[in-house]
Amino acid sequence: MSGHAVVIAGGGPTGLMLAGELALAGVDVAIVERRASQELPGSRAGGLHARTIEVLDQRGIAGRFLAEGQVAQVAGFASVTLDLGGFPTRHPYGLALWQKHIERILAGWVEELGVPILRGREVSGFVQDGTGVEVRLADGGTLRAQYLVGCDGGRSRVRKGAGIAFPGWDPTVSHLIAEVEMTQTPEFGVHPNAYGTHAFGRLQYEIRDGQVIYADEGPVSVMVTEARTGATAEPTLGDLREALVAACGTDYGAHSPAWISRFTDATRQAAAYRDRRVLLAGDAAHVHAPDGGQGLNTGVQDAVNLGWKLAQVAKGISPEALLDSYHAERHPVAARVLRTTMAAVALRRPDERTTALRETVAELLGMDQPRRHFAAMLSGLDIHYDLGPGHPLLGRRMPDLDLDTANGELRLYTLLHDARPVLLNLGPPGGIDIAPWADRVKPVDASYGGRWELPALGEMPAPGAVLIRPDGYVAWVGEQTRQGLTDALAAWCGPPAAG
Question: Which residues form a coiled coil (predicted)?
């Protein structure tokens, strides 16, 4: 039986990001992925939001994604596109990029970090004990791990095996998505009608002046509302044709499907993100309608919140209690996503009263304050972890400041490339002693002449110092007492070293 510090079930974006985070911390991690190859059929999720791009920038890999995707304003609500122009971020936009490309790029990064991906294998069960988890594989093999993380999707075997409840709401609407050849060319774009919402396009496209321009030929990407919910069998070409005729009056001669899939607005969230040595992230922890494109982004950010905490616990730096903060911080974030997507689905209903409500919401989103509020929420730029009373920056994302240091000018996010905590001192050099944590925390003396700005807080003077967690969130602010710094270092970076 081979062993690892952490085994991750599932090699989608969440599992890959988590593996990268653990590998950066020097943790022995392996991914078990049921797909035999990296190739992902279909288009699936179609982009990254601003905060996710920032997270990738914190690890020095955002450029890989920006080189292949198309910058666009992808945040939207109630049929209103929410422009991030003027927001305090280097990435005031989203990135249009299909999930299969996001996965491929992440897999390349993870392989560079030396993480083994066991393809064509699947977790079938596990048994926990006081020191670890025995992970059983469908082919009869076993793995031993200190911790098991389920990143294995909405039907997660890991979640079910741990006995973690998955409460929520059953679907009210069902959609088929597919990539097929068509003898007739439909009108591209999104077309709501009394039957539901349907859309057509092509995987090959470009964005010009904010408009999507599709390729002139190739298979057609289809999304169409089904007449019923609750189907459990794999969808067929016959199901797709039937739904197209009902919604559009014709099936456009659909034939030769490359793939067909189904999604619904089923909305559920794990009651707990951890059961002793088993944890959940991504769709294993929360499922919802795809409105707003938040699922993949929420999962990747789950991974970045969990990765450094799990690494410190697995390496014996921090006590297991640190893992409790993962649920405490990420469960409320996903709960808000669930609420927002349920509202978006409700606003898509075609009846006249809902149309009136949708138009009213759109009118509100035309006003600056509501627009900025929703844009910050959907893009992830306003996430605020409750770290207790203190400075308003506490628990918020750290802006990517331009800093002057003894080694020259640099961007703050470059200090986070190795996923270590950073104590940024903006006061007199050498004024803060962190010797008991010198092996874990990177001290940086720098100056910054400007003012900070955050979406929820506006502009404010730069504080004297900040402790920045590996996930880029502020854990301590210099206006607090030095004892406060000692407490924050112990809480987030482990007890002080002996002597």
Answer: none
